[in-house]
Amino acid sequence: MKVAIIFFEIFLKISSERKSRTAALNAKKKLEIEVTDLTNQNEGYLKSKDELSKQLAKMQRLLRDLRNDNEEVRAEKDQAQSAAR
Asked: Which residue blocks in 1-85 are alpha helix, DSSP H?
């Protein structure tokens, strides 16, 4: 009888360990999927950031060109006013 009880206790312990191992593997799989999703999301954000950086640089060049044009027009206007006097 004692042997049967010992075997039953060992069986319960093994069953519990299997359940724990299965739960741990399932949690690991979920975490791996989450890491993959976050990695993909991060790659998308990096692409967006790069595109926005390019657009910003383009807008900054355009603004610089417009300021230069404005300064040239203002200088020409000042020259024309000086010549008219």
From this structure: 2-84
